[in-house]
Design brief:
The structure holds two protein chains of two kinds. By secondary structure, chain A is an alpha/beta fold. Chain A is built from ten helices and ten strands. In chain A, helix 3 crosses helix 4 and helix 5 packs antiparallel against helix 8. The two termini of chain A are 24 Å apart. Chain B is of the alpha/beta class. Chain B has eleven helices and ten strands. In chain B, the strands form two sheets. Chain B has an eight-stranded mixed sheet with strand order 1-2-4-3-5-6-9-10, with helices on both faces. Classes of the chains: A alpha/beta, B alpha/beta.
Amino acid sequence: MRDAGLAHDYWKKYHTAEEVEEALAAATTTMIPSGVYPVHVRLFLQPGPAPTVMMGSSVLSYGLHLLRAQLPMYRAGFNVMQFDFPGLGQSGGPRGGCTVGDFIQSWHDAIKYAVTRFGQPLYIMGVGEDGVTGYYAAAGMPETIRAISVHNLFEYGERDSLQGQGPYWLVRAKAVALAGATAARPTTGMPGPKSVPWEWIYGGTGDDEMITLLENDPLSLQTIQFRLMNSIVQRMPAAVQFESCRTPVQVIASSENKVCPYDLVKRNYERLGGPKELVTLDGKPQWEMNREFNEVYCAHVIRWFKMHGAQPHQSAAKPTTASTKSTR
Amino acid sequence: MADGDAGLAHDNWKTFYTPAEVDEIETHAQTTMFISGTLPIHARMFLHGPSSPTVVMAHPMLPYGIMLARLQLPFYRAGFNVIQWDLPGWGQSGGPRGAVPVTKFILAWHDALAFALTRVTGPMFAMGLAEDSVTCYYMGANNARLNALSLHTLHEYGDPDGVRWQGSPLVVRMKAAGVNLGKALRPSLAIDAHDALPWDSIFSHESDGPLMERFERDPLRVRRFEFPLGASMLRKVPPPVPMEECLTPVQVIASEKSRLWPYEMNVRYFERLGGPKELVTLYGKDQWEYTLEFHEEYAAHVIRWFTQHGAFAESGTTASAAREES
């Protein structure tokens, strides 16, 4: 049975026919418990020894939507282990209702599973919440996690970390109100597309069509509950302060990022105390859905991980150039 | 495709089985997910081929799919495809844990059948044990794609006997009012799963104690029953097909000493059924037992009933043709 772990065709609209075929041919799936939630895991495994890169998922979408960030790593000879956060995508839990704390816990549980399943070395790659929570979970584990690559880097509750919500005093006032609302009715929610302008996240040419597609995807962020919103706006320092981090961290920052401003990311990059690299994507928004953007992005990550000991599986000679033919 | 681990990378479920059973499960199980509404639903399948007869099943409200392989494997061994899915909010499926109302179970049943029909073409059957049984009837009665149903519990939502373990009809009605009020004020209110129903009615054999302890330790077991689920179980919702008008063959396997659903209730609804039917009484039994013997005996009754209704008839036998033949 080849369905990449989801017996539904909607996800195929995001990809070309050959990308779909590649995923169908290579993906296996399983689930791991995290707290009380079943967490969906998709694996792209090399036929022999290989380093493993771990990825979470975006809050707006889920693993099968983000294959273009996974397949280049697989083609380059890495095992890829991608998991959907609780309450999102194919994982269990209240839809859009699990918290940042749940996401961090799922990282811990995913790392534990990966160590058992693959051994070391492990590498962490994250783009949005998955990058920040990946740092929160993995920064203090240099023996297990060889290197990290993130796109956004901030501490929860930090100034500038919530764009579009007004000046900082207003953000804090909203945080207080949200805490009260969460205490009273934690499961009350609002439509996911109203939580943040999705065009701030996906800002590439032609991405507006993809956003419409994603908004209509039954497994995208249809609703976001007070308790998730509250966990994003409250202050929560990282377990390992940036200055104390000894794990090598690559930060790939988009200069035109409206969600997580370049200056905020650069400021936190400068605080990092260990080996580090800043890659600036000039003129780029937070993310683009096209294949070229994803492949350029992944090339930076692959180079960084190789610099830090990754020896990809050698027989992985698969296509690495973008195709323009779409199934949409 | 499952990663060789039956779709759950955790060892607790294996403690429910012998090593040979674990091996059989890991060798033959395939997993995927289908979508019901906005929820991802986990499905585990044991497949022979598309034209083999297929039984679709969910699970009751304590153990979830992977813990009921002793009920699933006898069908597979007998030549059936088995498509088992976890209820929304339960086991390996998505949704708020223990909080999804039964109306969405019914929707998930429809989606499960639709999913099954994309994979298999042979005679199709559905079976249920608890809430999955009642909702199975709501979905399956007079469903042209189903040859027959087998149910362990049968009632209409809103009948106080449907939650008899909660107390007398008066107490049930008072609780219903309280739960509805609580749900409106704060939907995340819940009661502990231990207080929601007597677990020892399900793990009722004298040797089931250790299994119940293992279930207790399971990370994915139900922890709480939230009020939206509780309210939905107490609300009056007539079935789309009244029992008297049901023409789909229905087998009811009733536990004589069930402390959850009274035997008399199941018999009362059985007697209302208008089509081909069979009542099997499990004498002296509480709702469920977790022994191998109980599962195999239970499955044997169902296999016999499904075989009677065209499971292994000539290829191409439709549900309605099998009904006429029977």
